[in-house]
Amino acid sequence: MVIKNAIxxxxxxxxxxxxxxxxxFITLLAGGHILIEGLPGIAKTTxxxxxxxxxxLDFKRVQFTPDLLPSDIIGAEIxxxxxxxxxxxxxxxxxxLLLADEINRSPAKVQSALLEAMQERQVTIGDQSYDLKWPxxxxxxxxxxxxxxxxxxxxxxxxxFLMKVVVEYPKKVSDEVDILNIFDKxxxxxxxxxxxxxxxxxxIQRVKVDKSIKEYIAKIIIKTREHPSVEIGSSPRxxxxxxxxxxxxxxxxxxxxxxxxxxxxxxxPALRHRVKLTFQAQSEGKSEDMVIDEIVKSVKx
Length: 301
Fold this sequence. Notes:
Rossmann fold, Helicase, Ruva Protein, domain 3, 2 domains, 14 helices, 11 strands
């Protein structure tokens, strides 16, 4: 299978970050966007750059800073002295894969410009709106240790991400050695075309979802709103995210129908950024992942 081979190829270049690689592929196949939280130097940029190489996609990177302007992302109308007219200079958002590095370092005005592109798949420059071509995936990163000079992403923005993945440093000496070995040589990738990707997505769209599975997803989402440790639960976008993710997972498991196990396999990346805990729950040391585990256990299959 094209996708399985591509996933295995990327894992060879990204040591001990299987969840990052898998969720990145799932996000691309589900037509969503992904938020990565992790310290510097853990192959976030390498992962999406190599994904672009595998499918020969256009890749651009934007380093978010406090002085960044919306036009630095979406583009702007430029006046030409030569022609005495305006022309449109498109920004890096007009790419297949966009890395929004340290997205929380820029103010709300910049974040909202990216939000329209993510949600509506279009941008407005001057009086004109421009559609973003398929595929279009935003991978945003956040550094968890930075506290100064950052702007917290509002819930409305977080909700636009299909998944949030938390990436940590390698814990084993062998993993660190593997990183050095990979750094010391060139890892070759087999190239796949956009047509290959389109064929896979068409098959995923035909994956069947039974009524009972949809009810199972709905019960989980309702529970996030009723759980005593949760201040704000998931929006209906969480339901849609779980549905789309589970169809991709079922396809990767060589099935044309969704099972409950497909729903819960990546439920933490799908919901951890959509669940806001109460102050008491946080003071007790609870995490979003712990609450999601409790919710899954409480909902009968």
